[in-house]
Amino acid sequence: MGVGLEFRGRWMGMLVAALFVSACATSPERINDPRDPLEPMNRVIYRFNSYVDKALIKPLAQGYRAITPDPVERGISNVFYNIDDVTSAVNNVLQFKMSRAGSDIGRIFINSTVGVLGFFDVATNVGLPSYKEDFGQTLGYWGLESGAYVVLPFLGPSTMRDNLGWVGDVVTDPLINIREDRIYWGLIGMRLVNQRAKYLATGEILEDSALDTYAFLRDAYLQRRESQVHDGNPPTATAPQADFWDDVDFDTKTNSRQDPAN
């Protein structure tokens, strides 16, 4: 597993370096938002991600959606949500939200047993809500500013704070303990395709409704993360466009459809 992680790290570093050089070689684009000082490079990576999505990930998601019955697709999503509850429980403890941590732990126990490894979301039906906290939210909870907006190759929208938190998310993800690279990458690929399949209709609406999809996605992502850090009550008002994304996650680490007050 160590060799696999080293390979992944080197490969990602080479890719980011290549994209950075490409961005520097491109004529600078006007930076309109102080939250996005890396906009020229971010737009290059965003276009790269869009190309990969249209050429590979979206067709895979469409095929997956076509051949997978809805109950099975929902069950696969539940399995990955159950895995995410492990990271959520750790972060709720770090934020001293013990009732939420207890709910997360209860969900893991019930869904992993009665729910057959999470395939059936029994916990929600017995009154245990889903709280999806990550390390980026924990850092924000303790006062660390989000920093510059960043678009990551393949992973999409992020911030400097979320990049730092992502390290903790990886370490606490139960999948990281899988030592066989083929199984690990197979599950990561399934998680990605399953996640993308949920956004097929949303992506088409976004492309049809926004003149600058990059800016729209950036603003919506930053507003949503601010809301998540403050448990749905951010200190500053959010723009109306953020409501468009109430049921959409921007990465595989968060899912806050059920987020009642603690």
Question: Could you give a short description of this structure?
Answer:
The protein is mainly alpha-helical.
- Give the % helix: 55-70%
* Beta-strand residue percentage: under 5%
Secondary structure: number of strands? 2
Main β-sheet, spatial strand arrangement: 1-2
Distance between the termini: 38 Å
Overall shape: it is: globular
The gyration radius over C-alpha positions equals 19 Å
Mean pLDDT: 82
Low-pLDDT sequence parts: 1-29, 238-262
Structural class by SSE content:
mainly alpha
H and E order = HHHHHHEEHHHH
How many helical elements?
Answer: 10
Overview of this protein structure:
The chain is mostly helical and 262 residues long. It is 62% helix and 3% strand. The protein has a two-stranded antiparallel ribbon with strand order 1-2. Helix 3 (70-94) packs antiparallel against helix 4.
Features:
mainly alpha, single chain, two-stranded antiparallel ribbon, 262 residues, disordered C terminus
Please write out the topology.
Layout: H1 2-25, H2 39-67, H3 70-94, H4 98-113, H5 122-125, H6 135-141, E1 149-152, E2 156-159, H7 160-172, H8 181-197, H9 200-209, H10 213-229
Antiparallel strand pairs: 1-2
Helix pairs in contact: 1-2, 2-8, 3-4, 6-7, 6-10
